[in-house]
Amino acid sequence: MSGFFGCVSRKDCVADVFYGTDYHSHLGTKRAGLAFYNGTDFNRSIHSLESAYFRNKFEPELDRFAGSNLGIGVISDMESQPITVTSHLGRFAVVVVGRLANLNEIVDEFLKERKHFAELSSSTVNPTEAVAMLINAGNTFKEGIENVYNKVKGSCSFLILTETGIYAARDKYGRTPIILGKNEHGYVVASESSSFTNLGYTIVRDIQPGEALQITRDGITQVTTPGCKKQICSFLWVYYGYPSSYYEGINVEDARYRCGAAIAERDDVKVDYVAGIPDSGVGHAIGYSNARCLPYKRPFVKYTPTWPRSFMPQNQAMRDLVAKMKLLPNEAFTRDARILFLDDSIVRGTQLKDNVVKLKECGVKEVHMRIACPPLVYPCAFLNFSSSRSNFDLFTRRDPGFGRYLRFDGRDIETIYRSRFGEVQEDAGRDGSTFTVGFIEVSTSGRYCEGNRIAEGGALYPLFGQFFLYVKKGWKQPFFTYKKKDKSFYLNMHGGHLSHPVYQSVFC
Question: Whole-prediction pTM value?
Answer without folding.
Answer: 0.75
